[in-house]
Write a structure and sequence with these properties.
By secondary structure, the chain is an alpha/beta fold. Helix content is 40%, strand content 19%.
Length: 260
């Protein structure tokens, strides 16, 4: 069993997105997905790395035609268990690095809301992105989520007093970029890393947004908010989530690209 399968077999990803602090990332991502879909006639959606279907199943229940691809069998089982057969969704096992099951220009919107968390080489990242672009129609959208470096330095390296351990393991570069490998499960990037990948693809960036912004720094505070206060927090977050001076400090970002 891979480190990734072992992690998701034990981790409650569904619960994370349902918690108040997790809802910020979910609501933000859905806001921008819906904005892309609203511009396209009769859009078709591919989600690669669909997890337990938090996005795919919701979109299918809204009437969109969705294809959900998930590598981890445990996650795929949870996704399928949510379906009653009426949803216009096809769910299958697959890998972001190989979308050969799909022809070129098959989908209006392609979403990678998890795969880039777990790809550790530039070659693999470009392969996954290239496949996503290939199967997207010209003028269609590719939405890509990333885990960011600086929140991990702040909250994990310093916040959990892991600095000495990680320095002894040579897991931090002189410019404070965390070095990841599969056993760490998550790959961490900076905004310039994302821009460098985009530059290799036949796409234009529409937006790069902070999917959760400051939320995960104050999880306990956010989770304790009453509904009115949480609504104000969401309004504040939406007001600043496109500010580029704050993007790199967000735990998660969403890169919104349009295929040329």
């Amino acid at each position: 069993m891979s480190y990734l399968e072992d992690y998701y077999n034990q981790y409650d990803e569904e619960g994370r997105l349902l918690s108040p602090h997790g809802k910020v990332e979910y609501l933000t991502t859905m806001k921008y997905i819906q904005a892309c879909l609203s511009e396209l006639p009769e859009p078709t959606i591919l989600e690669v790395g669909a997890g337990t279907g938090r996005y795919s199943v919701t979109l299918a229940r809204q009437g969109y035609r969705v294809t959900a691809v998930e590598m981890v069998a445990h996650n795929l089982e949870q996704l399928k268990a949510k379906l009653d057969g009426s949803e216009p969704i096809t769910a299958m096992q697959g890998n972001a690095l190989d979308l050969s099951a799909f022809a070129d220009a098959s989908f209006s919107v392609t979403m990678l809301l998890g795969p880039m968390y777990h790809l550790y080489t530039r070659e693999d990242k470009l392969k996954a992105l290239g496949e996503a672009v290939r199967v997207t129609k010209p003028g269609g959208y590719i939405l890509v989520a990333y885990c960011m470096n600086e929140p991990t330095v702040i909250q994990y390296v310093f916040g959990q007093n892991r600095l000495r351990e990680l320095m002894e393991l040579d897991m931090i570069t002189p410019d404070w970029h965390c070095i990841s490998e599969p056993k760490e499960v998550f790959e961490l990037v900076r905004t310039e890393d994302i821009a460098s990948l985009d530059a290799e693809l036949p796409v234009e960036r529409i937006k790069l947004i902070a999917a959760d912004g400051a939320t995960n720094y104050r999880r306990e505070l956010i989770d304790a908010m009453d509904d009115e206060t949480f609504g104000k927090w969401i309004a504040y977050h939406f007001a600043i989530c496109e500010r580029q001076d704050l993007i790199g400090a967000s735990h998660h970002t969403l890169d919104i690209l349009r295929k040329k």
